[in-house]
Each structure stands twice: as structure tokens, then as C-alpha cells.
Amino acid sequence: MSTEKETPLIVGLSMPQAQPDAAQLLQSAREDGYDYVTTDLPLSQEARSDVIALTGRWWRTSIVGNVPQCPPEALLKNLSKYIEWAIHMGIPAVILPSPPKDMVFEYAQVLQCLAIDAQSSNTQFWIRTLLNEESLQQYELLTRLCNGQPNIATMLIMEPLKPTNSMAAATASQIVMLHKAIGAHLKAVCFPTSVFLTNKRGYPTLAKSHQVLFTEALKRIGRTVRILIEGAPKHNIPTAGDGMGSTKCLPYLQYIRHIRQRPECVAALDTEEANLESGYLDSLQRPLQPLKDHLEFSMYETFEKDPVKYAKYQEACHMALLDGMSSMKPDAASPKMITIAVAGAGRGPLVMRAIKAFKSLNADPAAVVLRVFAVEKNPSAVVYLQSMAQHNDDWKGIVTVVHTDARKLTLRQLGGRKIDIVVSELLGSFGDNELSPECLDPLLASECCKPSTISIPMQYSTFVAPVSSVRLHTDARQQAQVPHEGAQTLGLQRAMETSYVVRTHAASQTHPEQVCWNFQHPAKETSMERAVSLDFAPDATFAAAAGSGYGALDPAIASIVSQIPAGSGGAVTLHGLLGSFTAVLYASKDRYCELSIAPHRFSEKMFSWFPIYFPFREPLHVPSGCNVGVKMWRKTADGRVWYEWCAKVHKHGETLAVTPIHNPKGRSSDVSL
Q: pTM score, two decimals?
């Protein structure tokens, strides 16, 4: 798709000052093009010139506070005073030191209390974290102790490269740690000026491994991450003249923005589909209840913008029509009629695609004709369909609108014509979660269909994978305060036993997805219940190529992380499961058409479906070298369908941790038939 607009990259500057003066630094930094600056927070009540030089607007938008490094005891004693002043000034974020090694629990106790106080002012805390396993585990322990406070995040500090026998293995290890950090709520990346190398012209540059790392960070979270250049300028470029800028740090900013303009970053951040989905990033949505509720006009419009899904459906219809017509026996007396029923026609995009597929065959109208029945239960959508059937030249004489639930369609409503092809788009993010099996199987088994009737889709498989995401888990917990069906709040139990459709962003899929179950149409078994037991073995790459669990596997990242030695890795904390699906729209001996949101087979540029998130009530810590066992059930009873799920951590036959079974008997969430 074409580029619409560039997503801005927010870059700040932190420089040592004899006396903290955010006003002076901000003026110079903004002249150079920086977006924000940092300032050391005061401990005493000594006068500061910047307090009267800057209005509140600047403090609220362009200043990030910094808590100076100090001994652990002094830090714990004075931290509340630093934060109190930051909240008073409306500073949006405060950079905090890493957890003291021997005082993580004490640090967490103080930090959690301050984070709760800071929520009302939306003040974020960015914890300095080095990009190594020990620092990440310290930070991860801190966030678990703080119970996933939503305003506590990590700021990765890039370090100068250390000599190593294998730079490829070192880069691979850093990519995996970045992947894990994103799931741990990565909010900022800091580049000390000392980490920059010098190119042949004397300008700053990053080592190749740092370039790879930063490019991956931008591709993954470039729309939300904050960048910080920290330290005094290390590059004195005599030929640059005024090109050094007012801060003498302009070349660092220019280089960072140069990396941002790389084609792979532009492709990930600035395309039309990237702009369309930006409002959905990490936004939890309860799955649709298509049989219970009627969709609104605007929702139909949104779905119809997908450039891939309907092209795939047209391709599948074309294949089915080709195979069907090739088996027809010519009849000189009258043309053969092909009957297509679109189950759940909405505003008719599948109707239009079926007609286009037929027309692309250039069939002789004297030999074969098409009849399409647009079956729709939504009375408001039927008005649109009837208008199309009456006024659209492509529909006239071909399309008949039938206002009914597809499960209740009768042969009389079809004028006695049995259906050759049933086309539907009832798939949900988990394949069957919008009750496609419950809708299609009764129709295909009814008097309206033949034994040879083709269903598009023919079959679909659901997949699941563990996911690490402090952000998703925190947001799921916050759903507890959301009103439930206009009455009482949802409550914590229901919130954590409800599945959510979400465009994952600040998330990391930690293992390759595995298949749960599948459905075929026409059905080969009568039961619509399913159950599966899966086991996810330790993966040294932590499925880094799968990214957030949405989108295709990244072959470049897969190649890089393949250099990680087997058996390495480390611990990770899981916050739930991600569900996806792959659907075979049509398959025959010579033809095949599918669409998928599972990362291993993702249909590029398709955005009709986001993954589905099944939260764990409490985060599940997985020590290094442990397996993750997952059990899932699809249950049906009393006109309802629901899912149950649980997980365990085990090693060498010993169970180390378990989650409870979520949503037993569908007590918290279900889909109505």
C-alpha cells in the first residue's frame, strides 16, 4: 500500500549540567529538533531558574525527570521526595535507577506505593535496565512485586559492545533480550553518547549489531517508544561548523532519524494499513456476538476496507466455479444454473466478489447462468442489500435478498433451487469463536443443500501460543472496572476469564504457535466440542521472529536468532495465550486458496482479524529450561459456546507452577447461539 504519513519518532536529550536548568537545555534542544529533555529532580528546596522560566505546558509535555544515582539506602529514603516534586510539576515521566541488587523487595515496596499515587497524574516511571539477562530478570522481578502497575515501564540502556568470539551469537542474544523486554513493557531506549562509534567523516554511527537492534525496536514499537540521547557530546567535527547544532548533539539526532528512514522501518510504520491500525494497538475488544447482536453500518465499512480478504474469497469462488463448471454436462435445451448462497451477507462484499468471480470465467450465458442469494438476519443491513439488488447493474437479475438467519433458511425461500456453493465470512480471530460451525453445519445439512454443496471456507484450524505482555495483562485487569452490559462493573474474575481481540503491539509471543483443533464443512463429526493438550518446549530464540504474535514471521530475525547456541535462553514471564487461525477457503486436486493470521502462514496486508488474547489470572513465571503445558477446551451447552484454558510449568516430569482453569462452565464469558 502507499505511504500516507510518517509516524513521528520522539527523541529526547539528556546532558550533564552544573546546575539543573531545563529551560536553557530545552531551548537549545528544540532548536536542534529534539522533542524533550531531561532534568535532575531536586531533593532540597533550593531555587531553580527553570521553574519560573517555563510555563506548565512545557513541564507537562517536554520535560522528563531524572532521579540521580545514589547509594541504595539514600535512594529508598529520598525517592518519595523526588516523585512528589515531579507530580507537582506535572512531569509526564521519571527515569529511575535500576533496582539495587540486594534490595529489590524494599525498592518494590516503595516504588509500588509511589506508582499508585502517580496514577492520578498519569506520571510514568521508566526503570533503567541494561540489555543483559541479569538486568532484565531484576526488572521482571520488580514488576511482579509491583503487581504489574501500569505506569511502571523499562528503559533499555544501550552499552558499548564487549569483545566476543562470535559477534553473530552476541547480536542474536541481544535481539532475543529485546524481544523479551518488549513484552516486559519497554517504553524507552537510551543511547549514551559513548556508545556511538565514528565513521570515516568523523560523524557518529552505531555498530552494525546496534543498528540491527535499533531497527528491530523501531519496527516493533516505533509508534510508541521514546528515544533518549544521554551524555556530553563525544564527537567534535571541525568540518561540521554550525552543523553540530546549539547542543553540539545534533549529529546524534540526525543519525537516529536516518535509521528511522530505513525502508524496513518505513514499511512497518508508515503504510496505510499501519495508519489504519494505529488506534487499535494493544486495545482490548471483546469478540463480536454475531448471532446475538446486529453489526453497525460503520463496522461493515471498516471490514470492507481489507485489501486481501475479499480478493482471496473471489479467488476461492473462481476456483470452485471452474471445478463445478468443468463437471457440468451441456444442455442444449436450457442453460445450467449455478446457485450461490452468501450466509451472513452484511452489506454484500462477498456477493460482489462471487459475481466478479463468475464474470471472470467469461461463460456463455446460453450455457450457464448465475443466481446469488444474499442471506442476512440484520434488518438494517437488508435495506442496503435490497437497494443494491435494485440499483446496482451487476446485481440486477442475479441477486435475491433473503431476510432470515442462515440456520433457518428454507428451500421455499430459494425458489426450490438447491445451493451449489455456500460462501460465508463468519470466521473469528480464533477461527470458530464467532460460531461459524454452529451456523454452517445446520445449513449444509438442511434441505437447501446437496451432498455435493461446496462450503467456502472448507475448513479452518485454530492455533495458540504463550505470550508475554505486561501491557495486555494490566489492561485486562483494568477491564474489571468497566460496566458489564450497562449494569455492574465486570469484576476481576470476569475480566481475567474473558478473551479479547487485540492488535498486539507491546507484546512478545514466546513460543511457535501450535494447532489446537479444526472444523471442516461439510462436517465429518457431529460434536462441536473440542479439547487439546499442548506442550511448548524451551526455545532459546523465544520465538523472536514471531514478534508480537501478529504479522508474518520475520525471516531476517529468524536468521539472526538461529545463531543462538542451543540450551541458552533464560527465564520469561507469561501473561496468557494468543489465539489465531488458518482457513482453507477452497481446495481441490489442482487448486488451493487460504487465508491466515497465524504468524507461520500470515496473509500479508490483511487486517480483518487481530489475534485473540486469553489472559492468565496471575502472571506465570517460567524458569530457564522449563516446558509450558497448555490445555484448552471448546464447550457448548444451553445455547452457549465458551472456552476454558489453563497452563502449567514443568521440568523433567515435575510440575513447578500451574494456573487455575479459567472460565469453568462459561461463568465469565461465552458466545450466544
A: 0.94
